[in-house]
Amino acid sequence: MKIFENIINHKLSNITADELLKYGDQFNIRITKAQAQKIADYLRGKQINIFEDSARTKIIKEIAKIAGPETAREVNRLFLQFTK
Q1: Domain, as residue range, for 22
Q2: Which residue in 50, 56, 58, 72 has the fewest CB atoms around it within 10 Å?
Q3: Could you give the number of structural domains in the chain?
C-alpha cells in the first residue's frame, strides 16, 4: 500500500494547473484557471503526504486561502477518496 501513497503524493507535488483543471472537471470541483495555477505553484516541489491528517489539513488551509473555502472542502473530499 505504501507504493500507492508514494505515487499519489509524488503526483501532487508535481501537478500542473491543466491537470488540476482536468481533475476538477472529472470530480465536479469548480476551479478557475487562475486558482489552479496558484494551487499548482503552491504544491510544486513540496514534500506532501495527504495520508497524514495534519499534513492534509495544512494543505487544505492553504488551498482555502488561494481558492476559497468551498473549493478547499471539495479538494479535501477528493483527497479523502484517494486515501481510502
Answers
A1: 2-83
A2: 58
A3: 1
End-to-end Cα, the chain, rounded Å: 11
DSSP for residue 52: S
Residue 54: pLDDT band with limits 50, 70, 90: very high
Look up the pTM and report it. Answer: 0.83
- What's the whole-number mean pLDDT along residues 50-68? 92
Instruction: Tell which residue, 21, 29, 81, has the closest CA to residue 56.
Output: 81
- The answer to whether 74 touches 30, Cβ cutoff 8 Å, is yes
Residue 75: pLDDT band with limits 50, 70, 90: confident
Question: Based on C-alpha coordinates, what's the Rg of the chain?
Answer: 12
Find, among 65, 16, 20, the residue nearest to 44 by Cα: 16
Lookup result for grid cell 481558492: 67
